[in-house]
Amino acid sequence: MVIMLWIFLNFAQVYSMCSMTQHCSQPPYQCDVPQAVSPPIPSFHENFTAPYACPTFLDQEVCCNDDQNSAMNYKFFLIGETFGHSVGGCDICAANIKLMWCHFTCNPLQSQFVSAGEQKYVPNPVSPEQKVLALLVNFTVTNSLACEIYQSCQKCPYVTQVSAMQSPQGFLEFQGYEGIPIGLAWVTFFLSDEPTSLDLQFLPCNTNVTTAYGYPVQPCTCNTCLSQCAASYYVAAPTTLEGLAWPVIGVAYLVIFVFSLIVLFSKRVWKCHQDKKKLEKTHYNSHESNGVSSHLSSY
CA 168 → CA 83, 145, 147, 164, distances in Å? Predict the structure, then answer.
């Protein structure tokens, strides 16, 4: 029994490994470039001084330290101000993005789907003519993860305005590149359905909740959630006739009925008048014809 427990604990320690870390001189704003951990280190318990940026991993072993937690709190504020309801976006989209980056940074199985490489000077997305030192990182996720997170965000104003984010992979790649100035890491996404790829079940944007993964959220609207539109435009048929203004309806039908009778009567009178005129004209023509014939016969 003791041997089996020892094997289990050692297997769990090897299986739960971290591939990168980061430290900050003045968190959350001034941080060093993240660095790869070689060889990978086991996940660990960390006492965070700032609120948990990732409530999903509350009181668990993680791969993120106190500095990274503080930095994520700041980054997640920016995500909310970019994709959330305060800028006309969708809070569930923002929460889904936060959850993905939580697993990228803190998941105890980080080394399975996050591969940290070298530090390298790369173009700054804000000022491409300038270079910034960043860690090159590969992040492998499943196809379903990419599709689900994109579907929850595709109608947010920021997404609709950027042509590079009009597909699941484009949406992820844009974030991985545009996040260089803040995270000091260039994250390249790979889509794979291998067992080691990160696979998450995201909340659809039409989910009616007030918290998502521990983050407060407001319901998304049809303007920012495609799947919400069907419900918004559906009008249920009345199940009863209660509440209808029957007196008004009765008067309306009576007016229509009387008007129809007047029209029919008028058409009938007009037709009779026309028939009478035609008959009189026929008699007149016949009389004239007879008179002419008599006059001619007298000669």
Answer: 16, 9, 5, 10
* Distances in whole angstroms, Cα of residue 8 to Cα of each of 35, 59, 176, 246, 252: 30, 21, 36, 77, 82
Residue 115 pLDDT > 80, yes or no? yes
DSSP 62: B
234 pLDDT band (50/70/90 cuts)?
very low
pLDDT over 60 (residue 163): yes
Please give the Cα distance from 58 to 106 (Å, whole number): 11
pLDDT tens for residues 241-291?
A: 444 454 555 555 555 655 555 656 566 656 666 666 666 665 555 555 555
SS (HEC) of 187-226: EEEEECCCCCCECCCCCCCCCCCCEECCEECCCCCCCCCH
> pLDDT by residue (tens digit) across 3-30?
443 333 343 444 689 999 999 999 888 9
Domain boundary assignment for the chain: 17-232
CA–CA–CA angle 74, 128, 132 (5° rounding)? 55
**Which among 91, 79, 99 has a CA at the least distance from the CA of 224?**
91
